[in-house]
Amino acid sequence: xxxxxxxxxxxxxxxxxMAGAALVTGFLYAWLMSRxxxxxxxxxxxxxxxxxVVGAVITFVNGNIGxxxxxxxxxxxxxxxxxxxxxxxxxxILAAMGSGIAFGMGYLxxxxxxxxxxxxxxxxxxxxxxxxxxxxxxxxxLRVTIPEALEYNGVFDETFAxxxxxxENVGVKTTGMGSMFRLSYRVxxxxxxxxxxxxDELRTLxxxxxxSLLPWVEPQNQL
Length: 223
Hints:
Order of helices and strands: HHHHHEHEEHE
Distance between the termini: 51 Å
Strand order of the largest sheet: 2-3-1-4
Strand content: 15-25%
Radius of gyration: 25 Å
Structural class: alpha+beta
Number of helices: 7
Shape: elongated
């Protein structure tokens, strides 16, 4: 089961056996990961196909250094323009690629164990209350829009000290064709019941411009 099905040369039957194992395991893996990872349908379709694609590439290279260099050069021409994925998406892609290498070398048993084993471990760990520090879920993302003429350094310090346990400036961005600034803070309320009073006080300082207080998510771009 854990021996390579390939010999010196790859027979068509061996290749299609590898393809079947990689595709079936890949789709089962994508279905399992979709139970916990929040992403698009297209992402999970890609996850399902990656083990076969990587396995096919490894199979065709089959120790041929020249072919390996040519494939590496072809892949280097691809310019990815998509946004960086979440940690879960990156981990899912890496696991699918790792199993694809095992499939491509003919080790079908190892490929199945790597893919489904990692999916099972992820589902187990994500269901346990570990690696979650107290107070982390209480973090909020505060966005405050201010007029261009307002000096924002220190303008909210008194209000923050009265209502917040902590406040961390995570970015500044111009908006409204440069006529306004949008300030982003990672904050934690002292008392969530005072949220409206907190926002009302901020409105008196920012000229009643837009304010939002959202759940904190580790961002690609919080601005």
